[in-house]
What does this fold into?
Amino acid sequence: MSIRIKRAYETAALEDGTRVLVDRVWPRGLSKDKAAIETWLKDVAPSSELRKWFGHDPQKWAEFKRRYFSELDEREEAVAPLLEQARQKRPLTLVFAARDTEHNNAVALRAWLEKRLSG
It folds into this structure.
């Protein structure tokens, strides 16, 4: 299992494997060709309410993850394709647009997926 994260504005690479956009909105100013996204899973992104509440404030990170994990636990159908992709031998890259590379939904989602996959 190899789950990577990468900003949408970084150049796609072969080692990215399957590239999945995990944001609710398309990255501003980025063409679909340049993004090289195979799948866009809007429904695995945090709810609009949670996203606005968080506002990428590192002070809210722990509570954001707790709330986001709760949302993910309730979205079995939306998350199922990601879990299946992560079980493949091919790498999976979660693509996000946020500037903060340490406190964003892709980082939290990877942690949630890894926990689910490890049993």
